[in-house]
Amino acid sequence: MDDLLTNVKFQKNMVTIQLNELLIVTFKVRVMITEAEKKWQVLVVGNNPIELSDVVNHIDQIRHQPFITKIAFDLRSSLDCLATFSPSYILIDDNIGDHELRETIHQLSRNRKTKDVPITVLKNSNYQHFVNNEALNYLLKSNLTAERLYKCLTQAFTPRAAQQFLRKAYRKRKGQLMRLLAD
Predict the structure, then answer these.
(1) What distances in angstroms separate CA 112 from CA 79, 83, 134, one per listed residue?
(2) Per-residue CA distances from 80 to 35, 73, 85, 91 (Å)
(3) 4-8, 69-73, 153-157, 173-177: which has the minimum mean pLDDT?
(4) CA–CA distance from 105 to each of 49, 66, 131, 139 (Å)?
(5) Which of 114, 151, 118, 120 is nearest to 46 (CA)?
(6) For helices 146-155 and 157-182, angle between their N-to-C axes, nearest 10 degrees
């Protein structure tokens, strides 16, 4: 096995392994883009440009990962933005109003492009009680830093993946149960 590893040559997107004088094996290597190399796309929704620019500045301060950010000011502009932009994360400012906030979260969690995208609500205070099952996370704007925002965004993948798995497993098991009952 060690002799095999010494006869390996790496070229641009090819790997050549010489097993003996007669047998040379060449593989084409597919270049895989890892999660760390891919730019994460963040949609920031809110109605106050000053606070939104502060959030975008925090995103730009994150050095671990390159980000592409788009800003939308209401539900309509965020849905228009989805025509050309596929976000990895959605950050929504709670200053847009209670009804608008609920409607925006509901519409974005039902949209086919964003139904599997984690939604984080940026809150002004912890005194207001806001419950929504479709929002994955809440962050206080007063304590917002680039590092906290990065942790929130990176930790959002795990619960969303679990939700997707449970939704898929539920549909599969429900169909199996219905077929069993029908027989």
Answers:
(1) 11, 12, 14
(2) 27, 11, 9, 16
(3) 4-8
(4) 19, 25, 11, 15
(5) 120
(6) 20
Summarised one tens digit per residue, pLDDT across range 129-143 is: 665 666 767 788 888
3-state secondary structure of 93: strand
Which residues lie closer than 8 Å to 55 by C-beta, 6 or more apart? 44, 46, 91, 93, 122, 141, 144, 149
Could you tell me which residues come within 8 angstroms of residue 41 by beta carbon, excluding any fewer than 6 positions away? 67, 68, 69, 70, 85, 86, 87, 88, 89
CA dist 163 → 26, 157, 159, 173, 182 (Å): 41, 10, 6, 15, 28
Burial of 112 (0-12, 13-18, 19+ CB in 10 A): exposed
Span 21-70, pLDDT tens digits: 555 655 555 544 444 446 788 999 998 888 888 888 888 888 777 888 89
Beta strands in the chain (DSSP E): 8-10, 14-18, 24-28, 40-45, 67-72, 89-93, 119-123, 137-140
**pTM for this predicted structure:** 0.65
